[in-house]
Each structure stands twice: as C-alpha cells, then as structure tokens.
Amino acid sequence: MSCVRVALLFVLLQWPALRAEPVATACGHHDYAPWNWQQGGRIVGTCADIVQRAFASAGVTVRFDYVGPWPRCQALVAAGRVDINICAFRNAEREAYSQFIPLAMGNNEVAAFVRRDAGWALQSWDDLKGRRVGLVNGVSMGGELDQFLQQHTTIDRTNDFSASLRKLALGRVDVVPFGREAGKLAVAHLGLGEQLRDLPTPLLHGQLYISVSKQSHWLLPYLPAVQHYLAAPSYPRQLQDSLSWQHRYYLQANPPPSAPRP
C-alpha cells in the first residue's frame, strides 16, 4: 500500500473524532434553586442552562454529572478534576484556582431569613453583630461580607441550606443569609412559610460568575466566545425566561409537604 493510501486511510479513520465537539465537565451548588440544584445524577437549573448554551456557542459540549455537595464541587475544580464551576460569587480563594469570565452571568440578591417572631429589623450589617448566623459549608457571599460575619457573629455551619433553615425554625440560630429566590423556594418546599420570613432589606446584591479551573488549559481559547454570548443584547431576556421556567419547574418537582403531588 502506498504512503498516500496509508495517509488517506488514517484520515478517514480519525474523521469522526476530528469532527466531534470537545466535552467539558461542570458542577455547581447542590441546593440553590432556581439557579442550580441536584436532581438525580445531574446538576440542573438556570446556571446549568446558561452554561450549556454559552459553551455550545463556543463549540463545547458540557456534562453536568453530580459530583457531590458544594464544597466537593469547588475542591474538584481547584484540583482540575472538573473543568467548570457553573456559577458562584467571586472571592480571593476561588480566584486563586480558577479563571472567571469577566461578565457576570446573573445577579443574586442575598437576603436575611429570620423567624417571623424575630424582634429586630435589618438596616445594615451592623444589625447582625453578636447574632448566631447559619451558613452552609463552602458557601461564600463575597469576601467583604464573609469577613464581616467571621469577625462579628457566631457562625453555625451545616451541610445544606435545609438544615440551616430547620435550625432557624427551632431557634438554634438567629438568621440565615442566602439568595432570596433560593431561600423562598426552600422555605416553601420545607413547609416553613408560617414560621420563617425574609427581611426586605437585602444584605447585598451579589453577582454570579462562570469560572474555569486553571488546570483546564485546553478550555481557555473558548472563553472569549462564552463572554460574547453573555454580552449579547438578547441575553438578559434569556436569563429571565430561564429563571422563571426553572422556578416553576422546581416547585412542581418539589411541592410543599401539604401540597398534593401531581
């Protein structure tokens, strides 16, 4: 067989692999609807939806296999065993091991959840001083608020937001800071709406970002296309449509205890 025929045969054998899109792995928070949550063996929600579309526009397929709770997701991204953190607040620790897309993928208002009989109001962070604060392991609300809570409050850590809310209902903590939409959905799902409420003054307006492990060097050339997707004039409407749909979907899949399942 001539050298030309051998070369042609090699190209033909490799053709399907050459045409296939590269595949990246991704993870996210396991309990933060409608942005992201665990369902079966996958992470679903608006963050997964947006990441899938944004990277598809760059020619990359993304897998959202569930790899474990939120702290494990971050550890795997840091180690380069998972390529993408689908949405998170920025802080110095995360910036050390991952590259953030400069444009935020969404805005997330963090609220203070308290008991309905709580006898205090929130005007500023100073109103949190001396209080028992329920936080979830691995959750950050940005470096400034993280540091304030560490210095001025007593922090009680749990493995998931539902556990923190149950402690709040029992009076074991005074306040639980969390994303307002995610918190409201969780309160409804747990049937704690008569016991808990979110204070109207937000703790902060945080921005959620897509980030890529610094170990995943092969993904870096695709990131400008991902940013271009987030910068498109049509993106804000796509984001809101996804949030609305995922909100309804979560409530249908996770109705309050008193609600009949469809």
Describe the 3D structure.
Keywords: Signal. InterPro entries: Solute-binding_3/MltF_N. Residues 1-20 form the signal peptide. It holds the Pfam family SBP_bac_3. This is Transporter substrate-binding domain-containing protein. There is one protein chain. The chain has 262 residues and is an alpha+beta fold. The protein folds into two domains: 20-106 and 207-253, D-Maltodextrin-Binding Protein, domain 2; 109-205, D-Maltodextrin-Binding Protein, domain 2. It contains nine helices and 13 strands. It has helices spanning 3-19, 46-57, 70-79, 92-97, 143-152, 161-169, 180-190, 223-231, 235-253; strands at residues 23-27, 31-32, 36-39, 42-44, 61-63, 84-88, 98-100, 106-115, 132-136, 154-158, 176-179, 196-198, 204-213. The strands form three sheets. Strands 1, 5, 6, 7, 8, 11, 12 and 13 form an eight-stranded mixed β-sheet that branches. A three-stranded antiparallel β-sheet has the order 2-3-4. The longest helix has 19 residues, at 235-253. The chain starts with a helix and ends in a 9-residue tail after the last helix. 36% of the residues are buried.
